[in-house]
Amino acid sequence: MVGLRPDPGLYLERPRLLEQLPDAAGYVVWLEAPYGHGKSVLAAQWAWNLEREGWRVLWLSLNGQDARGPLATLLNLPPEAPWGVVLEALWREPTLLVLEDIEGDEAIDPLLAPGGGLLLLASRHKLNQPGLLKAMTEGWLIHLGANQLTFTSAEATALFGDADRAQSLWQRARGWALPLHFSALTGEPPEREALLEGMHQSLSEPVWREALLLAAVPFLPREAAVAETLTLTEAGFAQSLEDGYRLHPLVAEVAEKLYPNAVREAVLAATERLPAIMRGNAFETLGLLEPLADLLEQTITPPLPSQDPAAVMRWDMLAPAPSGHQRRLSVARALSGLGRLRESAERLAELGIEIMDGSPDRAISALGNAAHKMATVDPELAISYAEEGMPHVERAQPHLQAGFFHNIAWAYFQADLFAEAERYSRRALELFANDDPHRMSSLHAHAFIRWKRLGDLEGLLAGLEQLLPYTETTAPEVHADTQLELGRHKRFLNLRAESLEHFRAGRKFAAAQPLTMLEVQAEIASGEGDTTAFPRLLVEAERWEDASVTALIRTRWAQTLREQGNPAGALEVLAYDSAGSDLEGRIERALALAALGSEPKEREQRLPWWAAHYRLGRDPADLERLVALTLSGAQVLPGLIPFDTLPRERPELASSYPLAEVLASGWKEAIALRSDDIPALELTLMGEVRAGVLGQQVELTARHQEILALLALGYERGFIGATLWPEADTKKVRNNLNVQLNLLRKVLEPWGLATYLLEEGLTRTRSDLWDLQNAIMRGDADKALDLYQPPLAAGLDLPPLEEAREQLRAQVTATLFETAEGASADRASALLIRVLELDPVHEEALQLLLRNLIARGRRREAQRRYQTFARRLEQEMGLTPLPETRELVEVG
Length: 892
Hints:
alpha/beta
């Protein structure tokens, strides 16, 4: 358990001892002395000094427990984490680990090897761990015993401030820290009974009752403290801990012996302040069995069995009969928490049947939970519980009916009665209110059942997607697993980008689940093609001694290497012979063999299993079995079967593979079936000539740019040939054009199927020129302004293109001017300025602009623009502005 660390500021600092303690990593400090010699105080003061220098401090009280489990929990690792994982997490940063209350039998030797931090052991007697002897002989153990820890005369004087009194008490206490400290507070001799009585006399009755309460509990949480608690602490009779307050254990022990009835009264008077588990432990210790029985009958959140199932079982044995409904329910839940599912379910079922007539709500809830818990132990018995409650379910409230159907669906599912499981899960969904938080869990269960029964992959994905917001906010401990499950199932549909995003999202929630984190990181590394991450992940997985995670990491590593063109490296990762030729074939076989074994039961495991069978034997029947496993059919193939292994007589199976992979394959029948999926050619002509195919820009020669520009302008082939080769005869022109068109097709349509360049011209093409022309036809000035980036087909010098440029400029100018005539003053001014940029001598546009400027009081700007226009008109055309234009700036 987490240790109770004293507040170092409340005790006399003893430099004599602190100076003997190291401040560099690699040492073990062993404090060996009877109770009350200040071991915890010295450790706390040392810890406080190290924390100021940036050290992390971890504090545990072992009390006979092995250190690995509690330490793993303190480090946010699973209790079963192996020592290698625990030590790596412990010494990852400079750390002082304090282990109190060591009895000698604990397994702590792995901690005694020189590590990346400091270790302090506190015991009341000798320790016999072999590692201590090694540490002592090799010089990295500092051992302080009772003789060193007892107060010196000078320290006692510093504590009391009165040399004569200090010497007298120091001699009587023989330097024992605890009695000296209390003597300093009370002025009484250090005998325990006298010390306690002196403490009683020095406190008010309310504060004394608070002391008696603290005598009955290991510590009082901060939120349960009252003013009297703080008074005790300020007086030095209670210790201030990180999470609460504690009466000194020596005083507590004497208080229980001298004032047993008063301690019981103090506890009973303050029960509402104590957490339920602490309250029950106090009742148990003090023999308050009637209050203990009452506690077991209360409805407490979170339920007692979820907090400490073993305590609930103890209390039930101690508390007097009779046992009411809530107590029996708590015992049943506690049995479940202890892994005794059969006993738990039997008790729940017995309880439900007994109260069926009097309380259908409670009965249905008990029987449903009994069926759910028994489902994995004895499905037939679980179904009998469901059938017992079925005739009475309509008497219960709707949300309890929903919970009952949800629970029994799991029982039918475990019995492989999938149709019934689906029916009851659907019934649960119908009864749950939309805002009922349990509905999310039921949605997932229903989708999962349909996946197992029918292979409804899309339904499972939808259910998991709906579950995500719920798990993120309400059940973050399962959110990482939900994201991992979503990512893996989406990969069956080859949704790799979405799959990778789910893995990345899961990483944020997997910190407390080390094995899940390793799986998530392996999936991310595979999705990102990061082969450098795998060696570290493999080392961590092997430290956890989990064969399935280790195998997953090796497989993902090998797959990634293979995808990056390194089959030899992939074979090495799989520990598979990489000698000889045909490395691709060997890695294919190795990956397939890695997935084989006996046929698994779970559908998500059978998918890669049948895929492996097909990849090894190329038996079309295996492929059919694979496709039949889900309602998605051939959609699952891209995530499981390499495209180049598909049977050539089945081009329809290529329907779900990435289009780019199909087009690059040269498989004409498969390409023809996917022709409608081929995206449009992206042709850019404004400001440059550029063509994009499948999101990639293609390299175009100048001649190909000219052909595309002329085709986009609507010219037919004869005109294009004559324009490009004006000096050649007709036959030569036709031959030249055919040659260039064939070369252009190889660039734009490398898959060999006529897609963009047909006899009649361009098809399945998008062009910014066409978008601009459409905007002009609609009179959409904003769109025209956005698209018009002159010159058209920059860098090409052909008469038809020059003519088209002028025509396009005039059309854009006209569109802008017409829009400005009916626009607001601000919008009109912006449009007119752009018109004059395109056509500097457009006098009508100038006139309208001048009127707008003058109307808004901007006469100086109007005169400046008029003068610029006049100069340009004189320079380019030898003319002067019209009189009506000049009058606009001269009036007034």
